[in-house]
Amino acid sequence: MRFRLTDDQRALRDGVRGVLARRFDGEALRAAVEGAGDGAAGTPRLDRVVWRTLGDLGFFALRVPEADGGVGLGLPEAVLVFEEAGRALLPGPLVATHLAAGAVPGAATGETVVAAVDGGLVEWLAQADVVRGDTTGAVPLRSLDPLTPLHRLPARRFVPDPVAVLLTAAEQLGTAGRVCELAAQHARAREQFGRPIGAFQAVAHLCAAILVRAETARAAVYAAAVTADPADIAAARLLADEAAVRGARDCLQVHGGMGFTWESEVHLHLKRAWVRTQRAGGVTESEELLAAALAPGSA
Asked: How far is residue 60's CA from residue 69's CA, in Å, rounded to a whole number?
């Protein structure tokens, strides 16, 4: 199933992609990773200039009504911009700040960085200006992703926000799309035995599988953005998580040992995708919600 974007939606997506390409390109990503241990307590530092640029773009205020100073758009548009953020591996508590826009002063404009308690974890706790939720007992946790600092919290009852689940799925979709591009580019450029490696069946099948999973997830995420149905969101989250994690793993396989080097961004996509799977209730919460929705008599 393919969704046709409106001209305005396409312009929004392309505009965000263009800004991120200028403000947070491959060189900026590498610099952020290399400097990840320079911040306080060995954690990455949040680029406040980029954060305010996002605020100026309306990234955080996208769903705030125009009467309240926001952009006045909806979930479909938010999904598009978060997909681009995921594609660029943009660091920071994007979802938490977006959800706080209109409720926390300065969040909508990017002047205030907002983190939020997410079950037993909280991202970017030390760098945030405002933290929503009880952080009592938080302890630093070594993060697999060098650009996502984590703190662990004592177990508490947690009900994930469906919008947070959907926007996380959108970021995962961005990663799935990007690793598909990277795999195809490398398969065309890299040669073995005088032929591009993409000409070999095993590599071609890997690239095809990445594409199929990414496009299946895209249809589910875009549909959930339109319906906003909790079951649709749960299904989209599961498909997007799979597309991001398995797609990044297969992309690494296409790249061989090169994909694990710091000169490549492929392993960073896999690490970010793994960390995102723990967000907003994690995979288990979505599986249980979807199972309940599909159970006989649940309609």
From this structure: 12
For residues 209 and 138, the answer to whether their CB atoms sit within 8 Å is no
115 membership: H or E segment, kind and range: strand 114-118
Buried b (16+ CB within 10 A) or exposed e, 161-197: ebbbbbbbbbbbbbbbbbbbebbbebbeeeeeeeeeb
**C-alpha neighbours within 13 Å on the C-beta side of residue 81:** 23
Would the pTM count as exceeding 0.90?
Answer: yes
Element housing 14 (H / E): helix 7-23
Report the amino acid identity of residue 103.
A
The helix, strand and coil proportions of the chain, stated in percent and rounded to the nearest 5, come to 60, 5, 35
Are 190 and 196 spatial neighbours (Cβ–Cβ below 8 Å)? yes
150-152 β-sheet, strand order: 130-132, 114-118, 121-123, 150-152, 139-141
Alpha carbons 55 and 112: distance in angstroms, whole number: 10
Instruction: List the chain pLDDT tens, one digit each, 299 residues.
Output: 556 889 999 999 999 999 999 988 888 888 888 877 654 445 788 999 999 999 999 999 999 999 999 999 999 999 999 999 999 999 999 999 999 999 999 999 999 999 999 989 999 999 999 999 999 999 999 999 999 999 999 877 788 899 999 999 999 999 999 999 999 999 998 878 889 888 899 999 999 999 999 999 999 999 999 999 999 999 999 999 999 999 999 999 999 877 677 778 999 999 999 999 999 888 788 888 888 888 876 65
Contacts of 7 (CB under 8 A, 6+ apart): none
Beta bridge partners of 117: 122
